[in-house]
Specification:
Length: about 230
Amino acid sequence: MPQPPCLPAAITRRRALAGMAAGVLTGCAGHRPPPPPGLALPVDPAATATPDLVDLARFDPRLRLDIRYATPANFMGRVLYPVPRAVAQRPVAEALARVQTRAEAEGYGLLLFDAYRPWRITRMMWDETRPDKREFVADPRTGSRHNRGCSIDLSLHRGGVEVAMPSPYDDFTPAAYRSNEAAPPEALRLSRLLESWMVAEGFVPLANEWWHYDWAEWRRYPIMDVPLEAVRAG
């Protein structure tokens, strides 16, 4: 199989996004293995914006990170990310900073579990998840909004301690649904408080995962498969 191009297919097929080579990637073939066989990186013709990824920890040091996929403490039970980084498109980062300010006014802060996710990781999750649980993982044929740098998985902390929410992160049961009313009242209150702040700043909540939010303009950005450690973010 020939070596894949340096840039994701969504970029190389549109010369208008050629500037991504300098702004997002460091290195080419030597930094990225070939994609999984049998399925190509999806291309969204509506995605015409040039990616502008930023490192969230540098962009706003107030944000706390708990990148579960850089540890074995996730639903896959193994390390998926070689580095504990959270990167996202610049408008997402700017909106998160505003949410952080809202949270601070109430004595809380944001705790980020995940942001940009390379497409090959989405493919791996799909392949290794039982079919009856796949509502909780994205179909690689269409890609995830995480793959576009436009989704955030997060919770709240108070004084550095994660608060109790309706379910653990990546819980594949109805307890994770936003419609769940069986959780303790304080957990429901905090989940809804976080949701109100996120929605006010342009995020759309996912119905079956209390922790997952999509940036409203996610469709503008291409699906990417740049390894997390190779992303050069501002």
